[in-house]
User: What shape does this take?
Amino acid sequence: MSITTMSLTALSAALQAGKISSREIVQACISRIQAVEGSIGAYITTCEEAALQTADRSDARRAAGECAGPLDGIPVAVKNNICIRDVRTTCASRMLADFVPPYSATAWERLEQAGCILLGKTNMDEFAMGSATEHSVFHPTRNPHDLTCVPGGSSGGSAAAVAAGEAPCALGSDTGGSVRQPAAFCGVVGMRPTYGTVSRHGLVAFASSLDTIGPLTRTVADNALLLDAITGHDLKDGTSIRRPGGSAQRALGMGVSGLRIGLPKEMLAQGVADDVRIAVLQSAQRLEAQGARITEVSLPSLRHALPAYYIISSAEASSNLARYDGVRYGHRAAEYADLEELYLKSRSEGFGPEVKRRILLGTYALSAGYYDAYYQKALQVRTLIKRDFEGIFNQVDALLSPAAPTAAWRLGEKRTDPMEAYLSDMHSVPASLAGIPALSVPCGRNEAGLPLGVQLMGPHFSEATLYRIGAAIEGGEG
Ligand code: GLN
Assistant: This one.
């Protein structure tokens, strides 16, 4: 097996057994990037030289018997909205095209301490708003399984890099599905962790009550390893949870015998493509054959999840993005007559159309006279969704659903009608609103050869159970 298709776990074992060096792994990724990046476009920035130097330091540590652990010497790709000191972090926006952060996100600092090596910063939808990585001011990213298709989004660059062998693993961010949906489209594993378990410090804010950082990997075991490395309390994030750490890897390999798994009927009804529905039902059968108990369940409030998500996330975005005024933060227009014009021109030039749409939508939903009708109502729906999940998790240990209603679509297909793209988030936004963990696992391909993904959701802090079930599904992938 070649270095660029090996799992993170296998690479780590080979490193520790002295069969391979970190420099060799990094060099293999760089060669692969050079070979395929022209057609895929997963990265905005790559850091070849620095990566090789860091790899040499890791190899020296191992030679001296000072290995920092299983991730020491492993290269990682990081989404362009996660700050890394001295590396350009653009959010794929003209607004931040020249931004070089003076500090690193806590999630990255934790990986750095574990010995990980930065390969580069990946492409994304501008400010993480989108589902196809077509809303990047730099270039679109293509799906490695079919170059005419999108990789999903907004962490499309991270998912495509892992799928194409350009990195063994990556970090993405998930506000309403941006780790899970691109993972499904690219045939990789993606986790949205319980809100508050991974620090948001250094993640450029989109919708603060929904934003999370999550890993994208080739296998379920890899994902659990990476998640454990980035999890932990952080004083720099006011919503970070202080909690004795149980490992996300602890239940891997325990099998699913006796677990109760629900199939939410609202998530298999209207709007779901046949190939996706069949893949979910086949995964359910596979789990049942291994001893899980499958039941159909109902969460009636889910039909309101999508509008509630788009109101809440846009409202928060309109507030978070107000800081980009060309004065203290962000792109500044070259010429302006007064302060008003400075704001107007800087923001008009700096933001792309999708970001402007969200700011307008969010400002409207928060304005006097509409606040109660839209924002307040959306918060009430959010409470109902949380309660529906709480009730269902008294009956079942986890829920199985599609990760997205269809496989990847063609580039450009949904660019003109934003509503079409929004609808594709219908399976991912409920877990986001409830703050619960959700894992996207590959489960075969459709007739066109495109990957399909299923989603597992569980109560807060149930990551270990989701990985346990995910591993049982992954084993059956053809
Ligand atoms: N596609 C969703 C949106 O556009 C989710 C984005 C995300 O999770 N960052 O809002």
